[in-house]
Amino acid sequence: MFSETIPIRTDHTTARLTAYFQDASPELGLDRKRPVVLICPGGGYGFVSDREAEPVALRMCGMGFHACVLRYSVSPEIFPAALWELAASVAWLRQHSEEYHIDADKIVVCGFSAGAHLAGCLGVFWNRDFLRELTGFSAEEMKPDRLILSYPVVTSGTFAHRGSFDNLLGDDCRNAEKLELLSLEKQVTPAMPPVFLWHTFADDAVPVENSLLLAQAMREAGVAFELHIFPEGGHGLSLADAQTDNGTGTQIVPECAVWPALAADWIGRESGKAAPGI
């Protein structure tokens, strides 16, 4: 495995895409292409969490995937800066798929909390005219093939994590039209890619209703999804084991620590074959 950091530029921001690519080897098949999991850590659009970054990428690599971490722009930058950066990152991976042995039809965007909102935004907006005009990329270049959404910020309504929308919209955080646009359950269409979704019933920061509202909208639109709701565990669990615990022990929830293996199995089933390391 080798690591590379790629600057992702918009007209006024620069994000960092840190990639962890599996080495090509004659013993493994030089032409072997792997799915890539592009990780958007959480942080309420106010920071980018280290706990949901490299440890998750290395876990994904350990299961046979390529992995990347996007350190996207946060407050005081506002929408759509981070979405532009994510769309450009997906396009970069697709454009360089031959060079890095990436399966260009298996670019999986994995987000946590507000990072899951960002991932979900690309999932619902990848084929919208405004994003093509903003980025200069075609819809096909920007399209995520699958989404993994971990305890996602979804709705701007009753069950909103208000701080995320305050940071994302800045002075426009009470603009009803923009709040409607960014309430993901209201933007789902049949063009949204398949989704793996997990949350905890006990999450008191981003209520589980966020995932339930999104699941209902996907059901109505005919979007394929797998949903797991675990009974215990607070917000921001990351891998839910000792590796990503903050030292208090509260982020160690064995029942939830199974989610990476469940997600890897889902990627394999969605693609019609076993995941690389399973």
TrEMBL record:
* MF terms in GO: hydrolase activity
Ranges for domain BD-FAE-like: 32-217
Superkingdom of origin: Bacteria
What keywords is this UniProt entry annotated with?
Hydrolase
Pfam families tied to this protein = BD-FAE (PF20434)
Report the protein name in the record: Alpha/beta hydrolase
What organism does this protein naturally occur in? Candidatus Eisenbergiella merdigallinarum
